[in-house]
Design goal:
Layout lengths: L4 E4 L3 H12 L4 E4 L4 H6 L5 E2 L1 H9 L4 H6 L1 E3 L2 E5 L2 E5 L1 H5 L3 E3 L2 H15 L2 E3 L3 E6 L7 E5 L5 E5 L2 E4 L17 E16 L9 E3 L6 E7 L2 E8 L10 H12 L12 E15 L2 E2 L2 E3 L5 E2 L7 H20 L5 H4 L1 H23 L7 H16 L1 H12 L5
Parallel strand pairs: 1-2, 1-12, 2-8, 5-14, 12-19
Antiparallel strand pairs: 3-7, 4-7, 5-6, 9-10, 10-11, 13-16, 13-17, 14-15, 15-16, 17-20, 18-19
Helix pairs in contact: 1-6, 1-8, 8-10, 11-12
The protein binds flavin-adenine dinucleotide (FAD) and 3,4-dihydroxybenzoic acid.
3,4-dihydroxybenzoic acid binds next to strand 15.
């Protein structure tokens, strides 16, 4: 074999898996369609759960996260012009850390370079073969245009929702759960200090808005927009005007405006396939499941998957024990469905559903009020938000 594990995709899932396998003495090669520069600049998630932070720290890739990441001990729900703070740490003893996904990606790539681990960027035509056998193969074209083949003992499909791994599984082998929402998120990164010390999830008749950050100088903001909305309809002035309206409070809060340096629209969906494996192909992260971003679970779930997968592959390939690999999917799906429910729950509690009647709007407000006033309800939300312990 050319390598023990062929990993498709250099997102958080693929890179962390490769590094965890290296720490256990297992050889892997990561194949990535984009360039190193592209994956390091892609602005996405920002909230790391406590278990995610602990894991990155424990394996020695947390130094910059510890120096530059921003620990948050609470967050606010804003509705009817008022803030209601959920004291995460008081309720759970844990916190979240605001540290950009692309910073984690950068740190993991640096760790690979330092240890001489193999990542091939800018590959194309990736195709998976012989997945039912103990010698699966990956064919691809490398950055120089040469046809290549990788012989492995297992393949990890970490290539996100639009990758090739999941569609390589024969029709009828997977049960698909899919749910779409009647909205999308417009996300912006602005060169301006955050307007508040913590995250604000705002429910407003005009639609949901979220105030987050990346550093003391960079603000990250999101707006609910219609699905299939074009970014061309959102010049910067309209974005700021909408943010001001949706985030306004009775005591005169305003959003600090500044130059917008990145903006994009993300559709929202919930999606799960079961099982997350087929023969010697194991799916992890967005390749196997998608959550709507409300609740900040996607990247954290990808990390929890590969933690299980690294352990299962070690048992399979090093100890000759196939049981953990056979149980990989079931082991992951517990956490996946908890995150699916939590993300759906946060989404429906905070967005303005164009199809909701007056009765449903009243229920939504009642649920929000209960969540912020009942210690039991706030505690349940906080426990999910900071991240349930790994199994
Ligand atoms: P990806 O990051 O998608 O990585 C897959 C990789 O595979 C990519 O690099 C891609 O280029 C590569 N690839 C694809 N196809 C191929 C191919 N054919 N061949 C080779 N390579 C291929 N999650 C959170 O936890 N917290 C948050 O706060 C949060 N906020 C978000 C905000 C936004 C706006 C968005 C869009 C997402 C957010 N998420 C959040 C979700 C999170 O970004 C994803 O869940 C996470 O990126 C999943 O990681 P992954 O490694 O599974 O997939
Ligand atoms: C961010 C993204 C989320 O989906 C979320 O729920 C909170 C924060 C962010 O990008 O900062």
């Amino acid at each position: 074999t050319d390598t023990q594990v062929g990993i498709i995709g250099a997102g958080p899932a693929g890179l962390l898996l490769s590094y965890l396998l290296h720490l256990q003495g297992i050889d892997a090669v990561v194949l990535e369609a984009r360039s190193r520069e592209y994956v390091e600049k892609r602005v996405r998630a920002g909230v790391c759960e406590q278990p995610t932070v602990d894991l990155l720290r424990n394996i020695g890739v947390g130094a910059r996260m510890d120096a530059e990441g921003m620990p948050h001990h609470g967050l606010s729900f804003r509705f009817e012009g008022q803030d209601h703070r959920i004291p995460l740490t008081e309720l759970t003893g844990k916190c979240i850390t605001v540290y950009g996904q692309q910073e984690i990606v950068k740190d993991l790539i640096t760790a690979h370079v330092d240890k001489g681990l193999r990542i091939e960027f800018e590959v194309s035509d990736v195709a998976l073969h012989d997945l039912e056998t103990e010698r699966p193969r990956v064919t691809y074209t490398d950055a120089e245009g040469n046809a290549r083949e990788l012989n492995c003992a297992a393949v990890a499909g970490c290539d996100g929702f639009h990758g090739v791994s999941r569609p390589s599984i024969p029709e009828g082998k997977l049960k698909v759960y899919d749910h779409e929402y009647p909205f999308a998120w417009l996300g912006v990164l602005a060169k301006t200090p955050p307007s508040h010390e913590e995250l604000i999830y705002a429910r407003h008749e005009r639609g949901f808005a979220l105030h987050s950050m990346r550093s003391p100088e960079l603000t990250r903001l999101y707006l609910q927009v219609p699905p299939d909305e074009s970014i061309d309809n959102w010049p910067d002035e309209r974005i700021w005007s909408e943010l001001q309206q949706r985030l306004e409070t009775r005591d005169g809060f305003t959003v600090r405006e500044g130059p917008i340096i990145e903006k994009s629209i993300t559709p929202m969906r919930s999606f799960v396939v079961e099982p997350m494996q087929y023969g010697r192909l194991f799916l992890a992260g967005d390749a196997a499941h998608i959550v709507p971003p409300t609740g900040a679970k996607g990247m954290n779930l990808a990390i929890a998957d590969v933690r299980n997968l690294a352990w299962a592959l070690k048992a399979l390939l090093q100890d000759g024990d196939p049981e953990p690999a056979a149980a990989y999917s079931d082991r992951c799906l517990d956490r996946v469905w908890r995150a699916e429910h939590f993300s759906w729950y946060m989404t429906q509690m905070l967005h303005a559903d164009p199809g909701a009647d007056a009765f449903q709007q009243r229920l939504q407000l009642s649920q929000l009020r209960y969540t912020v006033t009942s210690k039991a309800a706030a505690g349940s939300l906080a426990e999910n938000y900071v991240g349930l312990p790994f199994r």
